[in-house]
Amino acid sequence: MSTSLYTPETPATVREAQIAQGLHLITQSTPNGQKVQILLEELKDVYNTQWTTTLVDIRTNVQKSDWFLRLNPNGRIPIIIDNTQSAPFPVMETSAELLYLLKVADQDDVFGFRDELERSQYAISRFRTETLRNFNVLEIRLSGKYTGEPSEYLAGKGRGKYSVADMSAWPWVKAWKFSGFREEDMEAFPHLMKWVDRIAEREAVQRALGEKYATTVEVVKQAGAGNLKGIFE
Fold first, then answer.
1. Which of 8, 127, 164, 221 is the residue whose CA sits 20 to 30 A from 142?
2. pLDDT per position as a tens digit, 49-82
């Protein structure tokens, strides 16, 4: 990759981040954006990880513009640009970004796993589709139905460990109302609902959903199930 990734139309905040030679986040506070926002804020609490941010509004189709597609040909937010490399290195797709941040910024595996048997892609890859079947899978995991030991988090031994698995699944699961589910539907998942509240109480999570990334918070709050697809892409 080279600086030819940038054009005159590339936002100044993106181009100028190269001077600081650090991480830069291009995001909007949708569930996919929130996954990476949460991990960055958690890394800041543990390691004082620093980054700069450019907020975009995907309702304007900015993600389909030439400058954006040079960074992510798939035209999706968020994007991480690592300016510590010899040339700006863009990382795209949320799961890849989470794993990249673990590699470069979580040297003590606070949010990842050293043990290969414990290094779970299960929650990251499986719990994206908002369906009652997947809610039930999460409920079984958290309730300890088959292990005999309830878990507070989605991955890890014993009672589990707060990790990128939770960060990846939580932004979608917490939006269950917008997915058309009723409170009566969710009564079957008491452990899952407690997990939603548990993650929501974390200070880094609250910052990740707060004014710092607030370009679409009110849009998401007001959205109905029928028009979420365009907002959350």
1. 221
2. 999 999 999 999 999 999 999 899 889 999 999 9
In Å, what is the CA distance from 220 to each residue of 59, 77, 80, 226, 230? 12, 16, 23, 12, 11
- For residue 209, with 0-12 CB atoms within 10 Å meaning exposed, 13-18 middle and 19 or more buried, which class applies? buried
- Reduced to 3 states, what is the DSSP secondary structure of residue 53? strand
pLDDT band, residue 116 (cuts 50/70/90): low
Residue 68 CA to residue 87 CA, distance in Å, equals 17
Whole-number Cα distances in Å, 100 to 17, 38, 70, 105, 114 = 19, 14, 20, 8, 15
In what side-by-side order are the strands of the sheet with 23-27?
51-55, 23-27, 79-82, 89-92
Question: Residue 175: which residues within 8 A CB-CB, separation 6 or more?
Answer: 31, 130, 220, 228
Q: Pick the closest to residue 164 from 118, 229, 230, 131 (CA basis).
A: 118
Which residue in 176, 184, 185, 189 sits closest to 145, CA to CA? Answer: 189
Contact 53/25 with Cβ under 8 angstroms? yes
Q: For 61, left (φ over 0), alpha (ψ -120 to 50), or beta?
A: left
pTM of this prediction exceeds 0.90 = no
Q: Please tell me whether residue 124 adopts helix, strand or coil conformation.
A: helix
Radius of gyration of the chain (CA): 18
Count of Cβ atoms closer than 10 Å to residue 108 Cβ = 9
